[in-house]
Amino acid sequence: MKLLQNTTVFLLWMIASISWAGTPAPSALRCELLLGDSLYEIVDPTPNFAWVVPVIELGGRQTSYQIQVSRAKDGFHSVNSLVWDSGSVNSSMSVAVEYAGEELQTKETYEWRVRVGVEHGELGAWSGPQRFTMAAEIRDAPSGHQTVTNIIEPVGVTELESGRLLYDFGEVAFGYLELDLVASTEGELNVHLGERGSETGIVSELFKHSNVRYYSVPLAVSSGNGVYSVHPPKDERNTRPAAIAIPGRFGRIAPFRYVEIERNGIELSKLVVKQVAIHYPWNEYASSFESSDADLNALWELCKYSMKATSFAGVYVDGDRERIPYEADSYINMLSHYAVDSEYSIGRRTHEYLMDFATWPTEWKQHSVMMAGMDFMYTGDNSSIRRIYERLKKEKTLEERAREDGLLVGFPYEEHSDRPGDSADIVDWPPGERDGYVFQEVNTVVNAFHYLNLRQMAEMANALGKADDAADYANRANRFYKTFNEHLFDEETGLYVDGIGTDHSAFHANLFPLAFGLVADEFIESVTDFIVSKDLACSVYAAQYLLEALYQGGREDAALRLMTMKGKRSWQNMLDVGSTITLEAWDDSFKPNQDWNHAWGAAPGNAIARFLLGVRPLEPGFSKMLIAPRPGSLTFAKGRVPTIRGPVDVSIENRNESISAELRIPGNTEPTVSLKLPADKRIGSLAVNGEEYPYSVDSQIVTLEGLTSGEFKIELSLR
User: Fold this and answer.
1) Any idea of the CA torsion for 301, 334, 283, 307, to the nearest 10 degrees?
2) CA-based nearest residue to 223, from 272, 180, 185
């Protein structure tokens, strides 16, 4: 099996989509630009090209392509203007096609185009050109996009009893305020910015003992017409040397939704208030989701918007408090970003940044291997793992900690120290969320991550042609699986213990082995029953793996219940308290200094795409994909999941006597479709687009192979 884990990479892709233009014949294939017509600051000397093959009756299977690159000033008018012409290449490759022409020059602007042939047909029409400009310094490193601004109009304006004006922008965004006004006299306005508010205004008392952002900014205005930018004061928490600096052209920024303006006796004959939001380039229409559960729909929207709002730094950061990337935070952020937009550069950039600026927890280091693997899996591009493979081996697999039997020796987190050492086993964060976990020298959670890392290293080594390494890691993973279960599983209880030397079985000691494929088939039920019985006995961070474990264990109804349950310890609480970005913790009561703008709380966003709608890569770059919707008790669910091959549309309805699934599958991929029957049901008949279709059934899982690109309606009658 190829890499199925997540990766964070900063990769600059030149991407086009291919669509039919004119009559439906192969010669009419034409590419349309997907990421806009210009890309900037490309640092990679051999950038990668990707395109989306259309959904067509022929099946959309590419068999050839041709790429041309020219200097923008010369265009494609003659052969002499080209810096690279791939010629006609017989290949199904449509992602991660590496540039192989003349040396690209610094600060030079180029343009590229592509045409393809499908099903052994002739090459189609050329795409429109896409421009890209090389950076001032070219090096073997990930490229990325520049953050952009978006002008937001208020959704509501209220004049309060105090005479203050209250503006609600609907959602929290990172940015600053712009005022266009005409003042009767010079003077000073007081401008209040806050993440939280109500119809009565922004009450500063709410923020004295909370980490919810609130700023009061005095603004000197002149008489007459003027346009003013309002920026928050410097915040010592997020401007330390380790913080990611915000480009100077934006000035200081803060997360806010509400604005309250005190006029202080100044008459304003004109006042136009706008929020200038900063975020990474964003395609609002790349993804969608709707189901029969309104609470789940609201949660998905919260998770999706969190990806946009928290991308303000150009890399994934831990919210506003520190503005520092952390590996575990970034991994969850990456997975959920992949789930809502076909954007891979910010993840890669963050991942490679963290290779140079690693953080201290043991499991966070292990997440670097996971980010590398997921980056490769979702992009099909091995340039990042090629750059960092040796460093992953040396710095992130923690092999120096392995005992003779392969199990890692840990460094338990020092509960009462002000600052842990360079490395410490963390299990969960904050410490109060560990379900009484008993730390031992050999820690079950750290070793579960190690097993996953061994599998991923084998897969990456194989992708890089390092056959000996691949075989070694695969063999070690197989031996480790046996050793792990011999030492850390208690057959009497049917559960994993926290480590060697204790008989305590914490929630975390069981959910991580289940999520990472360590539980033997005969014990999946006992482990999963235990996990289900504990509800959300973990932090927002570990809940990522809890959802994965439940779906892997076949408990989609339990996962659905957790995503929609109420109470302070729940995702729904994030909505109930009024946040429009996911929280760092379930509630302020679990972490008083938490951020209200932390993307690692958005695990349901990727769980819905990867497991509920069921779209996951089976091979790197989605050359083969799985579409395995698991709606559980929902009567219907539908959505769009972006992939580098193009969007996948999934719609599924559960009725008492039938299951209906409608799929739209992009070109140039081989899908495997998997549907799950209710426990008490069997198939009466199965048809695809009204005709009988072959299938297999194993333990209530129905599998269909051989579908191509296109639109399909699968109908199962049940008995």
Assistant:
1) 40
2) 185
The token pair that represents 311 in the structure block: 């991308």
Neighbours of 81 (CB within 10 A): 15
Is-contact 196 204, C-beta < 8 A?
A: no
Q: 3-state SS string over 236-295?
A: CCCCCCCCCCCCHHHCCCEEEEEEEEECCCCCEEEEEEEEEEEECCCCCCCCEEEECCHH
Q: For helices 467-488 and 507-515, what crossing angle results, to 10°? A: 150
The reply to whether omega before 430 is within 30° of 0 (cis) is yes
Q: Single out the residue of 496, 498, 598, 622 nearest to residue 539, CA to CA.
A: 598
Helices (H), 596-644: 603-607
| Whole-number percent of the chain with pLDDT over 70 | 92
Domain architecture of the chain: domains with CATH: 13-134 (2.60.40.10), 148-279 (2.60.120.260), 397-534 (1.50.10.10), 621-718 (2.60.420.10)
- Kind of pairing, strands 187-194 and 495-496? unpaired
What's the confidence (pLDDT) of residue 627? 98
- Do the bridges between strand 288-291 and strand 615-617 make them parallel or antiparallel, or are there none, so unpaired? unpaired
Look at the alpha carbons of 668, 384, 283, 576 in this order and tell me if their dihedral is positive or negative.
positive
**Does 37 have pLDDT greater than 90?**
no
Give how far Cα 587 sits from Cα of 308, 324, 473, Å: 22, 22, 41
pLDDT tier, 568 (very low <50, low <70, confident <90, very high otherwise): very high
3-state secondary structure of 714: strand
Please count the CA atoms within 13 angstroms of the CA of 249 that sit on its side-chain side: 6
Alpha-carbon span 329 to 244, nearest angstrom: 15
